[in-house]
Automatic annotation (TrEMBL):
Location of the region described as Disordered in the Swiss-Prot/TrEMBL record: 160-184
Name of protein: CBM-cenC domain-containing protein
Species this chain originates from: Archangium lansingense
Length: 184
């Protein structure tokens, strides 16, 4: 049974053109987020400015592939970026790993916190996990967190927030993923 699961996982991986096996650094299961939301390669996916920011796809600036999500701060008291596809992407209970990459483009003391919201079939939040990234510099930095999606989880959504920064500051995010973890 375990062998079949891994074979299926590798077959799925092979079909994901946005997930080059040469740079894969995560478990070989599919991302719960869709390809554009995760990779920003052809657009901004489901990302939408929530407060204190404007967003865009940043071509030629990427941790993976050719583009990332540019987040430009427009207010001094914090910012947020969310998804527009409430109640989120299909999900299942059990062990997961969430990860993203981020870097500062302008500004100091910038950080990104990713909130992972697990919801039931009606869209009610069951539990949320917070993944806090490091203080960002010019180099890409990775943040990751292992978590267990609660029983009855059928949807997952994420948002990105920060409490530091000034108008005109900017940062970039790429390689956003939530993967279910194979049985060990
Ligand atoms: Ca990318």
């Amino acid at each position: 049974m375990r062998l079949q699961r891994w074979n299926l996982a590798w077959a799925l991986l092979g079909s994901l053109t946005a997930c080059d096996p040469a740079v894969v650094d995560h478990s070989p299961t599919s991302n719960l987020l869709d390809a554009e939301t995760a990779s920003l390669e052809a657009g901004v996916g489901h990302w939408t400015a929530w407060y204190g920011t404007k967003i865009s796809r940043a071509p030629g600036a990427a941790r993976q592939g050719e583009a990332s999500l540019r987040i430009e701060l427009t207010e001094p008291y914090g910012w947020g970026v969310a998804l527009d596809n409430y109640p989120g992407f299909p999900a299942t209970p059990g062990a997961h790993r969430a990860t993203f990459w981020a870097r500062a483009v302008r500004g100091s003391s910038l950080r990104v916190e990713m909130r992972v919201s697990w919801r039931d079939a009606r869209g009610e939040e069951l539990q949320a996990h917070r993944l806090a990234g490091p203080v960002l510099g010019a180099d890409w930095a990775n943040a990751r967190l292992e978590m267990v999606a609660p029983a009855n989880a059928e949807r997952v959504s994420v948002d990105l927030t920060g409490s530091e920064g000034d108008p005109g500051d900017a940062l970039e995010v790429d390689g956003i993923s939530i993967h279910s973890q194979p049985d060990r």
